[in-house]
Structures are given as structure tokens and as C-alpha cells.
Amino acid sequence: MISPKEFCDKWNEKRDGPVNKLDRDMLQHTNLSSDTRRFLSEGGLPASAAPFIEFDNATEPIQNVNQKFGMPIDYQSYWFIGTTGSGDPLCIDERTNKVVYLHHDNNYEEIFMNSSIHQFAESLLLFSKLIDEAIHINGEFAFLDNEIPESVCMWFEKELRRIDPKAVEKNTFWFEELENLTE
């Protein structure tokens, strides 16, 4: 599992933008695990990352989605950290510390992304490498034109499976991303 320091060291801020670290005090009111809180405060999350993920502002305390969006109390265990490209809330579930998104077009159904914030961060790094490799092989617009070589997609799936086997199961975020890459 990637450490907060390793994530910061591997994230290319010049190319991919800054990493925002949350102040520990902004996380104390949550029931997130100490390991998750440590990663968010020492490693942080980028302001944005491929594939089309935006992360919330790191200057205010983290909120659960019922506080942030007025969602029903049933959602109080989901701590909002950002949005997907479709505008779905991206969250950490405090009961499990899994990273999920809440599919707004399907009654806010929980969709699995990664088993932990560590594995999520490492998956973002892998996706960045996938884009780099596609560009190296097929030119600067390879990712935007969806010209990802099959060998690169296979490498990405294999690496995802290595770091978080559940992330490539059917009906997960990364499974869907892999499907989109091979269309």
C-alpha cells in the first residue's frame, strides 16, 4: 500500500497540479480511521485528477454529504471529498473507509471505487501512467481521442488488480473506466 509520502513524491505537481493536504483539525470530527485521516493530512489529494475527478477545497472542514447537500440522515457516514466527471459525490464511507461515489442518476446508489484512500491514490497514479503511455505510443491526443493501446489497458487492469482486486470487479468505477477505454 502506498504511503502518504510516496504518493506526494510520485504525483507530478508540475504537470498534474497541486496536492491539497487537509489539516488534521479538519478531520477530527469524523469517524474516519486514523490511517485515512493520516493519509488525507500527510499525503492529501490533488485538486483534480484523471479521469475527470475534482476534489473539494482543502481549506474548510470535511463534511458528510447530508451536511454538504442536505441529503437524508442515511448518508451521514459518507464524507464528501470531491466529484466524478458526472457530478456524482465522491466520498469516503466512515464505516469501512472505502472510497465510493454516490450515483445521482440512480437514487444515490453507492458505487465502489477503492478499498481505501491509499489504494485510491495509487489508482490515480496508475491512471496518470496509463495516459502517459498512451500519449507516448499514439501521440498527444491519444487519451482524448480514446486511442489507448490494448496492451496499455491490459497493463492498467493488471496493476489495478494487484493493488485492489475488488476495484476491477463488475459494476465498480474502475471497471467502468476500463470499459470506456476499450470502446
Automatic annotation (TrEMBL):
It comes from the Bacteria. Pfam families: SUKH-4 (PF14435). It comes from Bacillus pseudomycoides. This is SMI1/KNR4 family protein.
